[in-house]
Design a protein that fits this description.
This protein has a two-stranded antiparallel ribbon with strand order 1-2. The chain folds into two domains: 217 residues, MFS general substrate transporter like domains (Growth Hormone, Chain: A, Up-down Bundle), CATH 1.20.1250; 221 residues, MFS general substrate transporter like domains (Growth Hormone, Chain: A, Up-down Bundle), CATH 1.20.1250. Helix 3 packs across helix 6 and helix 4 packs antiparallel against helix 15. It contains 16 helices and two strands. 76% of the residues lie in helices and 1% in strands. The mean pLDDT is 89. The longest helix has 33 residues. The radius of gyration is 22 Å and the shape is globular. The relative contact order is 0.14. The structure holds ligand LXM4S7IT. The site of the ligand C[C@H](N)C(=O)N[C@@H](CCCCN)C(=O)O has 11 residues, from helix 6, helix 7, helix 14 and helix 15. It is found in: Lysosome membrane.
Amino acid sequence: MIEKIHQTLRDSAVARWSALGVVAFTMLCGYFLTDVMAPLKPMLEAQLLWDSTDYGIFTSAYGWFNVFLLMLIFGGIILDKMGVRFTGLGACFLMVIGAGIKYYAISDFFPLGGQIFGINSQVMIAGLGYAIFGVGVETAGITVSKIIVKWFKGKEMALAMGLEMATARLGTSLALIITVPLADTFQSVSAPILLCLIMLCIGTIAFLVYTVMDRKLDKSIDESDAEPEEPFKVKDIWEVMANKGFWLVALLCVLFYSAVFPFLKYATDLMVNKYAVDPKLAGIIPGLLPFGTIILTPLFGNLYDRKGKGATIMMIGAIMLICVHGLFALPLLNEWWFATLVMITLGVAFSLVPSAMWPSVPKIIPEKQLGTAYALIFWVQNWGLMGVPALIGWVLDRYCKLGGEGQPAYDYTLPMIIFTSFGILALIVAIMLKREDKKKGYGLELPNIKKN
Ligand SMILES: C[C@H](N)C(=O)N[C@@H](CCCCN)C(=O)O
């Protein structure tokens, strides 16, 4: 008897990689705006008279609505109920609206001098734009994760997620590299934000193209013999939250990312204070980090797809994180080349854990609950991304000031011990996850590609 094989659009390699290319470009545009203001800090201070507190308020705005108004969780529920096309387009519109408000606030059109709740009104309006954008870009992140699972489950899922993260980090690198030259060329601090706004509009058009591909995929699934998926119900949220494996991934995520993204916010200062690097060049060393991950994240994703060992990869990443922050904490080899080597090692750790962690979620959580699960993980993670930079800033001011004339301003030992502690906790959670995997048989140590 000849068995009839029912194919769907996802079985076409060209179709699924094209779909990935389109949505990854949308994420690149999102990551570009996320980091565009970081290199502009000195210009904001010199030209718009912001101080560090203003900059801190603006930066934390990214998480305001996601964390306190639970917008990310609502985004996840909407994603599971309404699907990727509706949610993705909504997220793109939010990113464009947020970027538009932020551009207006920074542009010459904005009337200077006002105050809202005692804070510079320009900072507050730019923050409002960034907060709306934050909801959009984080919701786009969970939507794209679900899109990748939809097209790549049982195939090159971790490689696809790795390539998507690599493309997005290209946006981060772009922000770090071209922002200041662009602002200098146009003699305007708002010029790079205008470029981001234009790119986000193109990213939205790209997502519109994706919705056509997604419709075709759904049609091909309907025409195949594939089992229809059960619709999402609100009680699914409790099911996700009752899953111990889910909580271990969420904990690992917040601990690991808290030791990387917030560390990067202080890494340039660490280079100046501990390794005596010239402040003009100090950004180059942490700037190496996204570049390394662009190559390594897909590489490790490919390894996970073919050989498995996801839980082990996460453990190795956590061990490397402990070594890196431990070495930054120790009073040893205060030389720029040593700092560079340690930073490159951090790049390897920052490729290992994400390349295995995100593709492991669909092995723990059923597909119909994935939007909610990714959203909850992002929500837990956002607390760390918001809280840890504030904690480190407070620790530096309170316990680490050196202050003598011609001396470095801060001793970074205590902050680096805090970052090392996050690494130790992440390792404990990774070990617990590996044990839970053995008990429940999630298949974290198995390859993602299913042999036919
Ligand atoms: C910051 C954001 N919440 C985040 O965690 N981004 C991850 C990628 C998550 C999506 C994986 N498909 C990152 O490492 O940038």
